[in-house]
Design goal:
2 copies of one chain form a homodimer. Chain A is an alpha+beta fold. Chain A has helices spanning 16-24, 59-66, 129-145, 152-167, 261-267; strands at 3-14, 36-42, 45-51, 70-78, 94-98, 101-111, 170-177, 182-185, 191-195, 201-203, 210-212, 223-227, 238-239, 245-249, 252-255. In chain A, the strands form 3 sheets. A 7-stranded antiparallel beta sheet of chain A has the order 3-2-4-1-12-9-13, covered by helices on one side. In chain A, strands 5-6-7-8-14-15 form a 6-stranded antiparallel beta sheet, with helices on one face.
Chain lengths: 268, 268
């Protein structure tokens, strides 16, 4: 399995502190050493960095810690290969374009015998179940809404239906962002914490590093961090319920999905 | 206008020497300081790095020179903004996926009043004529061949026809690669040089740097460098004829296009 990290904020913020702890799990405090990647948006533009090395040993990861970029939407991933060999094209996040926006996707889980029919524009480059699922989501959205992006409500509902179809094949924790909103879906393990006034101090569980958010944030900052497992020991991380598809915008949850979608998916 | 740099080889090679001279044109020996970018393939995987800083001032460009990656297909670009503001999403190369491969594209030129009708999967993220043209090429290939990639001959013929349509709107020098082949089209200025046994010494025109390729290459290496203007002073750079669409594979030209396509395009 892999691990996921995401960030959604109301103003561009640095993910350096969270990434510091998260990246230790890529071979130091945990076993996810088969590649890593991070995508962050600057307005509409999306930077994507992927690597088939472990995040602990990667010079690129070191550079991100040293030169933090501020962003409102970040999706990061460390890989423990289950399907597809250790290779650059199998490293998450994956990126595609739809409706004049870049979309990035990262997956934690395992989909069994998952081989959807995919069209030319949304076919995987690598050999993972994850990229196949992402292509299925993008293709499904394009098929439902044609050439015009829908409202966020309609987008959430469509993603919920497509996610149900995929989740029937196995464990499908994922994060998906188009730079405007960030979707997070939980099959098994996913947690989030929202940092806003009054800010507290936080201590990473993966290394000896603490931060006092009072010293780094403004009163109106609102930042949500989402991760497979909580990254800090003294904050109130909220566990997603299995089946939830949450949509984050401006640092807060703005739409929740149903909690028990597996039965629904099977009933379809 | 902008400038283009490409490389196509029979075995993965480093573009460091050529990039050293090319990147000087991004604000030092020339005026192309509104962003830069480079895409290089490692097998099927594609690394894309873009920046809205000048290549002379960019820490990312410095890192590429210090940590050269070997690749069989590279497309690079330095930007002098004509359409679209200086912004990350307007920096070339652009990337899209089609038929299970990544495609990268960079453009030098200017297309007047160019606003093709584009579908959801191939709509631009930024505001350049260049990304619109790239989306039109990808959409046109998908429309012609559906979900299966065609032969390289058919691909070249289709690209020639689509290129003719676009080139009727203005200057359309471009490079396009899917990691297997590299296409280069000339409207006005484009040159290439093929380096193979017997290798020579080369001297960059943009800085005091020489290299003896005998010391770096094997007898069977075959490397073609393509650039808007010749990068070295003592090699036999071949000028493209206006209208030529060349397809490079394994370091050599394997298909040429017609030289006078503008008339043909207008006749259509």
């Amino acid at each position: 399995m892999c691990q996921l990290l995401g960030m959604n904020c109301n103003k561009p913020a640095s993910i350096s502190f969270s990434f510091e702890g998260f990246s230790r799990r890529g071979g130091q405090t945990d076993e996810h050493s088969d590649g890593w990647g991070i995508a962050f948006f600057e307005d509409r533009a999306c930077h994507l960095i992927v690597d088939d090395k472990s995040s602990v040993a990667s010079p690129l990861a070191e550079q991100i810690k040293r030169n933090p970029v501020k962003s409102c939407n970040v999706v990061a991933h460390i890989r423990k290969a289950t399907q597809g060999p250790v290779a650059l094209e199998n490293s998450h996040p994956f990126k595609r374009e739809l409706w004049g926006r870049s979309w990035v996707f990262a997956h934690n889980g395992h989909l069994k015998h998952y081989a959807p029919t995919l069209s030319g524009a949304f076919r995987p480059v690598g050999a993972t179940d994850s990229e196949r699922a992402f292509c299925f989501l993008m293709q499904g959205l394009h098929a439902r809404f044609g050439d015009q992006a829908p409202s966020l409500d309609a987008l959430h509902a469509a993603l919920q239906a497509l996610t149900n179809e995929i989740a029937a094949h196995g464990v499908f924790n994922f994060m998906l962002s188009n730079g405007e909103v960030l979707f997070a879906h939980c099959s098994t393990h996913l947690h989030y914490v929202t940092r806003q006034y009054p800010f507290t101090k936080a201590h990473l569980v993966d290394c000896e590093l603490s931060i006092d958010f009072n010293e780094h944030n403004h009163l109106d900052d609102c930042i949500t961090i989402i991760a497979t497992k909580p990254l800090t020991s003294n904050e109130n991380w909220v566990a997603f319920a299995p089946g939830e598809l949450k949509m984050f915008q401006n640092g807060v949850v703005c739409l929740d999905g149903p909690r028990q979608v597996r039965e629904f998916a099977v009933a379809c």
